[in-house]
Specification:
Elements (H helix, E strand, L loop, with lengths): L1 H23 L10 H13 L33 E6 L11 H7 L4 E4 L7 H8 L5 E4 L6 E2 L10 E6 L2 H10 L8 E3 L21 H12 L6 H16 L3 H8 L3
Parallel strand pairs: 1-2, 1-5, 3-5, 3-6, 4-6
Helix pairs in contact: 1-2
């Protein structure tokens, strides 16, 4: 888009330069334009921008190949079916934890959008299911997941975004309220120290999924998820200057 605008500006600059020449030199042929044509061409050259090549992305962990985490990842299977409703702003967020979930969990579904129309396919899928569906989102009406006797093959819906964005997703998609809401009993602060959050009970989507899976599928080893997050945090912290790293660690 930027390159297209620059091309339009370059063409406009060339047109302006030639028009000014004709106004100052009425009756002369284009062959005498000389310096003005040179000026026009120079303007075009200044506006010409070569496209920047994006960094190669690892097809497994979905991080740039220079920051690939594959050697720290272990696959994981669970009877819980996790489905992420992801805010579009999170897709290109470098620190987003759902990328790691996709690399670790073999049955993860990710649906990106904001409105009910964006999630039409997901809604149809859920309507065809016979398994119970739970929405992981704390509220006054939500139930403590660790105290429920829910089947291990349940479907778990997770909202991926900041608290503000997750709340917006919920308000725009009132169809989600037909599913029982559940919350987690937090025993410790998040280990996701590389992203700041305004609420003390904040967890990354990956951490929330790992805790919820442990509540539902008690035989499942969720360490591949937590180890993947630890690797991501370690990698980002190691690349930070000492004073910035200290600032992030002090939040823990």
């Amino acid at each position: 888009m930027i390159i297209c605008i620059q091309k339009v500006l370059a063409a406009f600059g060339s047109y302006v330069a030639c028009s000014v020449w004709h106004l100052l030199n009425p009756g002369k042929s284009d062959a005498h334009q000389g310096d003005w044509c040179t000026l026009s061409q120079g303007f075009c050259c200044l506006m010409r921008v070569e496209p920047v090549l994006s960094r190669p992305i690892c097809p497994k962990c979905h991080y740039p190949q220079t920051a690939c985490l594959c050697d720290r990842l272990r696959p994981m299977s669970t009877r819980v079916e996790c489905i992420v409703l992801q805010d579009p702003n999170e897709v290109k967020q470098a620190k987003n934890s759902v990328k790691l979930m996709r690399a670790v969990l073999d049955n993860l579904q990710i649906h990106v959008g904001e409105t009910p129309e964006d999630f039409a396919e997901l809604r149809g899928y859920l309507e065809r299911q016979q398994k119970p569906v739970f929405l992981l989102y704390p509220s006054e009406a939500s139930h403590n997941l660790s105290e429920m006797q829910a089947p291990s093959d349940a479907i778990l819906l997770l909202l991926d975004g900041t608290w503000r964005k997750a709340y917006k997703l919920l308000q725009l998609n009132l169809w989600l309220k037909q599913y029982p809401g559940v919350h987690l009993e937090l025993e410790q602060a998040t280990n996701y120290t590389i992203r700041k959050a305004k609420r003390e009970d904040s967890l990354s989507t990956l951490e929330a999924a790992a805790m919820a899976i442990s509540c539902l599928d008690k035989q499942c080893d969720t360490s591949p998820l937590t180890e993947a997050l630890a690797a991501l945090v370690e990698q980002h912290l190691s690349a930070m200057p000492a004073e910035i790293k200290l600032r992030y660690l002090s939040q823990k």
